């Protein structure tokens, strides 16, 4: 069960990083109309990408410890 929770956390954090990275990139390139979150706030996008990356690292490190 702990391995499954680590993998679920890893997948969820990857989805968060991809979503907010796409929103920031599209907002930066001037495509606010097609951005997933309509490029509401660049600082929020950057914060979620960084914190999602931290969560990816923590999930991966915990998954490797479970072996």
Give keywords.
67 residues; 2 helices; membrane; mainly alpha
Number of strands: 0
- Taking pLDDT < 50 over at least 5 consecutive residues as the criterion, the unreliable ranges are none
From the N-terminal CA to the C-terminal CA, the straight-line distance is 12 Å
Structural category is mainly alpha
Give a quick account of the main beta sheet: strands, pairing sense, barrel closure. Answer: none
Give the averaged pLDDT, no decimals.
93
Q: Give the number of domains.
A: 1
The number of helices is: 2
Helicity, as a percent range: over 70%
How is the quaternary structure best described? Answer: single chain
Order of helices and strands: HH
Radius of gyration: 14 Å
Shape: elongated
Strand content: under 5%
Write up what this structure looks like.
- With 67 residues, the protein is an all-alpha fold.
- It has one domain.
- The protein has helices at residues 2-28, 42-65.
- α1 (2-28) packs antiparallel against α2 (42-65).
- The model has no long low-confidence stretch (mean pLDDT 93).
In short:
The chain has one domain (2-65). The chain has 67 residues and is mainly α. The protein is 76% helix and 0% strand.
SSE diagram, text form:
Layout lengths: L1 H27 L13 H24 L2
Helix pairs in contact: 1-2
Keywords: Membrane, Transmembrane, Transmembrane helix
